[in-house]
Amino acid sequence: MTAAARLLPFEHLPCTAHCVQRTVTVSLHDCGLDGILAKCRKIVGHFKHSPSNAQELGEQQVALGQKQEPLVQDVPTRWNSTLEMVRRILRNRLPLSTTLSQQNSKIAMLTSQELAKLEKVEELLEPCRNVTELLGGEQYISCSVVLPAFCHLFRVMEPSDDDPVYVVRFKKVFTTDLAKRKESTNLKWLKIATALDPRFKDLKCLPKDERHEVWTSISSLVKEERLAQQPSTETTGKQPTKKTRMSEFLLCSSDSDSDDEDSIDKCLKRYKSEPKINMDQCPLQWWSSREGAHVLMARIARKYLSTPATTVPCERLFSLSGHIVQKKRASLSPDNVNKLVCLSCWLNAKE
After folding, report:
1. How does pLDDT run across 7-39, given as a tens digit for each residue?
2. How far is 294 from 200, CA to CA, in rounded Å?
3. Residue 301 contacts by C-beta under 8 Å, 6 or more apart in sequence?
4. Whether residue 131 sits in one domain with residue 20
């Protein structure tokens, strides 16, 4: 599939949410927290694999005035499952400790030092959860948010002097691994998309020396779009005038070249002077409402901003279809499968 994708005449962008999740998995493995997380998994397995143990835990939660909720087992391929496992254990530390002590179980409860480390893990994984939920939601998210999201993660993962050793190690591994994955993405495409998004057109997520290069690329795209819109000699059937031919012979360019460059610069300045929009507004709708003022740039913006930041919605549809078309329902017609998938999406949206 990867080799076939390389042969397609399309630009490729990896799923940003998957990149962040893989970075989290690598960082947790390399920062020395495997022992504590393995202990958490044993505690969760003790209650999840035994209905009687789970019932006792629920009774303790009710007795202590807490919400009755099951523990969560983390899975490497399930986003934010490690964070949710840690949160459930921290919220239910007292019911867990009481239940394990009453059962005289061989499963040991986490110590106070280990619980303090889990609180630090929760703080570390919270920004990653925000980014993955933003990018992995059901709503369409443009690829223009990828670089600002990366910039946010790099900023919050900067080590400080007060951080413990394992936190510093986690942050260093996280930033190093995420930087490698960022470099393997289509950075040129992402930079142009970010600049064409009215929410991020100031390009604060990029170093100052790279911003001019981005606007130069956009200027070239606008020039190409203008040339594509101009009728050629073959379509119009008109030959250039004698004055135009003489100008091109003497100056090696037409008189309109400088005018075109000035108009392109004015086009970019007009877009830059537009006020930024709020984060909850759609950039595609913004360009659609202002297409009359930015004709050429609107066409380019539609091309770049229509690229999704993640493949999560598509994968959710594949998973939903896989749950519907099973061994006992293998004879479903394609029309009925489409109807069932559509009904499921409607019911979820209604809820």
Report:
1. 888 878 888 888 898 999 999 988 888 889 999
2. 17
3. 196, 283, 284, 287, 294
4. yes
Domain count across the chain: 3
Q: Tell me what the pLDDT averaged over the chain comes to.
A: 85
Residue 268 located in a structural domain: yes
Please provide the distance, in angstroms rounded to a whole number, between the alpha carbons at the two ends of the chain. Answer: 36
Question: Do 33 and 66 fall within a single domain?
Answer: yes
Record the pTM: 0.79
**Could you tell me the residue range of the domain that residue 215 belongs to?**
192-231+243-305
Q: What is the largest CA-CA distance in the chain?
A: 101
Least Cα distance to 77 among 309, 323, 312, 321 occurs for 312
* Domain co-membership, 44 together with 133: yes
Angle between helices 34-48 and 81-91 (to 10 degrees): 70
Whether 64 and 92 have beta carbons less than 8 Å apart is answered as no
| pLDDT higher than threshold 80 for residue 71 | yes
Percentage of the chain exceeding pLDDT 70: 89
Q: Work out the angle at residue 221's Cα, subtended by the Cα atoms of residues 220 and 227, and round it to the nearest 5 degrees.
A: 90
